[in-house]
Specification:
By secondary structure, this protein is an alpha/beta fold. The protein has a single domain (77-308), classed as 3-Layer(aba) Sandwich (Glycerol-3-phosphate (1)-acyltransferase), CATH 3.40.1130. It contains eleven helices and twelve strands. The strands form three sheets. Strands 1-2-11-8-3-6-4-5 form an eight-stranded mixed sheet, sandwiched between helices. The protein has a two-stranded parallel ribbon with strand order 7-12. A two-stranded antiparallel sheet has the order 9-10. α1 crosses α4 (61-74) and α2 (32-41) packs across α3 (43-59). The longest helix has 19 residues, at 277-295. The radius of gyration is 19 Å and the shape is globular. 40% of the residues are buried.
Length: 321
Amino acid sequence: MAMSDLVDDRPDPLIFSPLRMAVHHGRVLGYIPLLFWLLAHHTQRTLVGIAAYYLLRFRSPQWRQLVRHFLVCGSSRRPRLIRAQSKPYDNTKQYLLCAHPHGILNGSWWNLISRFGLQLVDGLQLIMCVAPAVQWYPLYGELFEDRITDASKRTIQRILKDTNLTPCLIPGGFSEATYTGAQPDVEYSYIADRLGFIRMAIEAGVDIIPSYSYGLNDMYVTLEWQRHWRAVKAQALGLPTVLWTGPFLLGNVPFTENITVVTFDPFPTSQYTVDQTAKAHADYMDYLKRCFDSRKAECGAGHKRLEFIGKNQRPASRSKL
């Protein structure tokens, strides 16, 4: 296999197979209504069941291995990874890996890590930095094991200072998720006024690896009403404000999983100083757009363009979003 391409040639499970549907159901928290019903009607037994689950998750390697096997069998083989960097990353160094876009709980990296593990990017020791609640979701802990933590500034700074791990985060966050599939010909990146990840990389003296998941925003249709208002609220509250659905109103099953994740040459944040953070941020957005454009035709997104938005910058192409 060429260094630039990571694919899985095994047969793809049918999209409506019970196993595939169960994995998607768990990935996007489709069990929550049932959980609330059980808590309301069978409180004690449900709490005992929850406690037993977390005991197994943290104490039983056999349980984690069983769940990982379930995830592998039920995950799509369609998502692939193209390593477009000009040379392999130096796995003796730390980086900050930034995944774009967010999508609905980033199904692209979920699929790839399910099948290839956390060292799929040239052997880098990745640790997933997520919204605080995500690290407690069922299945996520089994998938990432002890390589999942919160995405707070303090935590990422500690990782970059005290470990040899490479934090992986999604700078657009829940705000960007609100814009999933907003327009068929535009991909929205909600980082126009988010400088924190750039500043952390500069302070730690590490470069940023940008990655882009082409096709991720096509997995689901999402609610259009008051997107910008909901995106701002998501940023303020640290909670998702996106509602989605799949084919035939099956909200947890996606329309497509033809996704290509591309990793690019590192952006040299280590060459900037802290007082150049704003310039580095502007340069990073320009670099990400050039990366996006360089591979979009190959990855089935030739008709799309990348637009940067944020709390104070609404989409230019459609004011009602």
